Amino acid sequence: MMERFAGRVAIRIGDVIAPLPVPAPIQNEVDAMWRAVFGRLDLPALRDQFFADGEFLMLDRLVPAALVERALAEIDDARPTRSKVPFVRAARHVGWRTLQRIAPISTALYKSSVFIDWMTELVGQPMQLKHPSDDHACATYEYERAGDHMRFHYDTCGCDDGASYSQLLSLHDRSTQRLVVDLHTTDGKPIERRTLQTLPGTLTLFCGSKVWHAVSPLGRHERRVILSMSYATDPSMTPWRWLYENVKDALLYFGPLSLIKGDR
Ligand SMILES: [Fe+2]
Question: What does pLDDT average to over the chain?
Answer without folding.
Answer: 87
